[in-house]
Write a structure and sequence with these properties.
- The complex is a heterodimer of chains A (about 240) and B (about 110).
- Chain A is α/β, with parallel strands linked by helices.
- In chain A, about 40% of the residues lie in helices and about 20% in strands.
- In chain A, helix 3 packs across helix 8.
- The longest helix of chain A is centred in the C-terminal third of the chain and has 17 residues.
- The two termini of chain A are about 30 Å apart.
- The radius of gyration of chain B is 14 Å and the shape is globular.
- Chain B has 3 helices and 5 strands; from the N terminus they run H-E-E-E-H-E-H-E.
- Classes of the chains: A alpha/beta (about 240), B alpha+beta (about 110).
């Protein structure tokens, strides 16, 4: 294996981008495939590459009369929650168990206290500051649940700009209609605003905070597992 | 840039790069296939240097010794090897697996 291949894979991983190290077990040699290059890989190998980027599962593949090993490196998804509210108290441990570590941001120190959120990454800061320190990316989900435009709006725009795989906002349809107006005024294109899941969460009749947390987490998982499906269809 | 999502001190691929930067001779072992209850998933890495130092794992510690000695040969010869191990029944019992497992590990030199 070439040292260059390891360097390239590590550079992609440091940048939180998915990458595959493809080893040719028949003839030796390897190739690094970045996620952006997956659509251009042809034949049965291309299908296997795109499937691996989708599932995140490494494995041996036989394609075009050769044996390959695909080692896929996926960034860990993160769930960033704006608002240290009752729903977040249920969502934080659930996300941790499900493999979507939660980070909570809320400038209201009475809400964002370690007593209310033991063992959870917590920033008692404005999203403007917290997201500068730990920027959002395509492997982040963002759920805005404060109901307060002063806190939620900036974070929602930042999530759309960063290409987060999921963006959700708590609030009734009426609340969301006013939010859409504000985001338009902030210069967010309508096609981007449509990516916001609002009202937030899967439609499971959730009533109490813990149930709403389940509905949100389910929707986040659905969005993560749907990543790349559109591209797959287009390539076929 | 420091990346809070990667563990610089324990990540085998990052360590491999660091060792290569320091002129050390390096082999990389990778779990490429598993059957039954294998202790480490496909894609797991063990990185080995020419002096037998290592980081990471391809099993729960059961076969690392054998992989390391094979890796020293690979570092010298430059020829990649495919190794196959059955997890011993006793080991399987201790970690609570009922069936034992088998793994295939590819070892290659990085240069």
């Amino acid at each position: 294996m070439r040292t260059d291949a390891i360097r390239t894979v590590n550079a992609e991983r440091r940048a939180r981008r998915a990458v595959i190290l493809l080893s040719d077990l028949t003839e030796g040699g390897e190739r690094v495939i970045r996620e952006a290059e997956a659509a251009a890989v042809e034949g049965a190998l291309g299908e296997a590459v795109r499937r691996a980027f989708h599932t995140g599962l490494s494995g041996a593949v036989e394609a075009d009369g050769r044996n390959y090993f695909l080692n896929v490196h996926m960034p860990q998804p993160r769930l960033v929650v704006i608002g240290a509210v009752h729903i977040s108290q249920a969502l934080a441990p659930m996300g941790k168990v499900a493999g979507y570590p939660v980070e909570i941001i809320d400038p209201r120190t009475a809400f964002a206290s370690p007593e209310r959120f033991p063992d959870i990454m917590l920033s008692a800061e404005w999203p403007e500051d917290a997201l500068k320190k730990r920027p959002l990316d395509a492997y982040c989900a963002l759920a805005a649940v404060t109901h307060d435009p002063k806190i939620d709006d900036f974070a929602l725009k930042a999530a759309l700009d960063a290409g987060c795989f999921y963006v959700g906002a708590l609030g009734s349809r009426k609340t969301h209609a006013r939010r859409v107006e504000r985001l338009l005024a902030m210069g967010v294109p309508p096609s981007e605003i449509e990516r916001i899941h609002a009202p937030i969460g899967l439609s499971i009749g959730a009533l109490v905070p813990s149930e709403i947390a389940v509905a949100i987490l389910g929707q986040v998982i659905e969005a993560f597992r749907a990543r790349g499906k559109a591209e797959k269809g287009a390539a076929a | 840039m420091e990346n809070p999502h990667l563990d610089e001190g324990r990540d085998p691929l990052l360590i491999a790069e660091d060792w290569l930067d320091h002129g050390r001779r390096v082999a990389l072992a990778t779990v490429v296939e598993t059957w039954g209850s294998a202790p480490r998933p496909v894609g797991s890495h063990l990185v080995i240097d020419g002096d037998g130092n290592f980081h990471g794992s391809v099993s729960g510690g059961c076969v690392e010794g054998a992989v390391i000695s094979e890796a020293l040969d690979v570092i010298d010869s430059g020829e990649a090897k495919m190794l196959e191990f059955g997890v011993a029944d006793e080991t399987a019992w201790r970690v609570g697996l009922s069936c034992g497992g088998r793994i295939r590990v590819r070892v290659e030199r990085v240069a």
